[in-house]
Design brief:
GO terms for molecular function: oxidoreductase activity. By secondary structure, this protein is of the alpha/beta class. The protein contains 11 helices and 15 strands. It has 2 domains: 188 residues, Medium-chain alcohol dehydrogenases, catalytic domain (Quinone Oxidoreductase, Chain A, domain 1, Alpha-Beta Complex), CATH 3.90.180.10; 132 residues, 3-Layer(aba) Sandwich (Rossmann fold), CATH 3.40.50. Helix 3 packs across helix 4 and helix 3 packs across helix 10. The protein starts with a strand and ends with a strand.
């Protein structure tokens, strides 16, 4: 089969189109023909950082975590899927797991689910990593009817899914964005847009919560922005973050009694820990999609397999809206 292989870590030019062996089914796994995959920030981190990142695969490697495709072979012990099923998931591209930047992929059956029927392969490939991340964070924080939820970065990958799911769970949702295009997307997905370039945290907390703060803050920006999340959260509120690789003064979180939820959705893949939970979440997401309550946004620029470097550059530019997708 053809695959985009990297033989060294580095810039967007490291990908090479090569012929490699097609994977064979093994117990508990399926082989699938990949239709599409999407680029996540962690894919770029692996490509750039290599061995400095503990989850990076050994070289040569095939990256790409998310996928949508059709099962071509079913391994021993797999009863929930059959040949011909259209599925999606996040099941490779790190550690010893071959990724989705190839014509075929081997996937643990616990890490996949039947693809939502109402969306395309490209849209389905955009959903797994960000969908699981958003779902896990919101459910851990116990988001429910009547709460006010703030999503930082609502036009990005995780953010645009998190704000739709928060709506689905019954919350009143607000989201920050940095320009007219981002705010337009946020509003179209059902949240009240906040321009963080113009409005201070104090100002929008006063305007939308009467100064009380948001019950839940989903911070998909992370880093130093977590201090803004602490400031925006209500007393005894919940803060969810996907980017917490930093040293931070937690004094404000302490005095407000905040609960902090760090979401690192790669744990089941890396440690073979409760992988079936991911399959269950993907099944739940597919149901919500087919109810018309969740729609992954695909960036206007879609790339082919031999344009993976350009796809990485597009995501790295910060200009993409929603998810950057590669068709195989």
């Amino acid at each position: 089969m053809q695959a985009m292989v990297i033989e060294q870590f580095g810039g967007t030019d490291v990908f090479q189109l090569k012929e490699v062996s097609t994977p064979q089914a093994k117990p508990g796994h399926v082989v699938l023909k990949v239709a599409a995959t999407s680029v996540n920030t962690v894919d770029m981190m692996i490509r750039e950082m290599g061995d400095a990142l503990p989850l990076s695969p050994a070289l040569p490697a095939i990256l790409g975590m998310d996928f949508a495709g059709t099962i071509t072979e079913v391994g021993e012990g797999v009863t929930q899927f059959k040949v011909g099923d259209e599925v999606y998931g996040c099941a490779g591209g790190l550690a010893d797991l071959q990724g989705a930047l190839a014509e075929y992929m081997l996937a643990d059956a616990n890490l996949i689910a039947l693809k939502p029927k109402s969306i395309s392969m490209k849209e389905a490939a955009a959903l797994p990593l960000v969908g699981i991340t958003a779902f896990e964070g919101l459910t851990r924080a116990g988001v429910k009817q009547g709460q006010k939820v703030l999503v930082h970065g609502g036009s990005g990958g995780v953010g645009h899914i998190a704000l739709q799911l928060a709506n689905y769970f019954g919350a009143e949702v607000y989201s920050t964005g940095g320009g007219d295009a981002q705010l337009s997307l946020i509003e179209s997905l059902g949240a009240t847009g906040i321009n963080y370039r113009h409005d201070t945290v104090e100002a929008y907390v006063a305007k939308y919560t009467d100064g009380q703060g948001f019950d839940v803050v989903y911070d998909s920006v992370g880093g130093a922005n977590m201090l803004n999340s602490f400031e925006a959260a209500a007393l005894n509120g919940q803060v969810i973050t996907t980017v917490s690789l930093l040293e931070l003064d937690l004094s404000l979180a302490h005095f407000k009694g905040l609960s902090l939820h760090v979401v690192f959705m790669l744990i089941p893949m890396l440690h073979n820990h409760k992988r079936a939970v991911h399959g269950e979440i993907l099944s739940s997401l597919a149901k919500i999609v087919d109810e018309g309550k969740l729609k992954p946004v695909v960036d206007e620029q879609v790339f082919s397999l031999d344009q993976v470097g350009e796809a990485h550059a597009r995501l790295g530019s910060g200009k993409a809206m929603g998810k950057v997708v590669v068709t195989v």
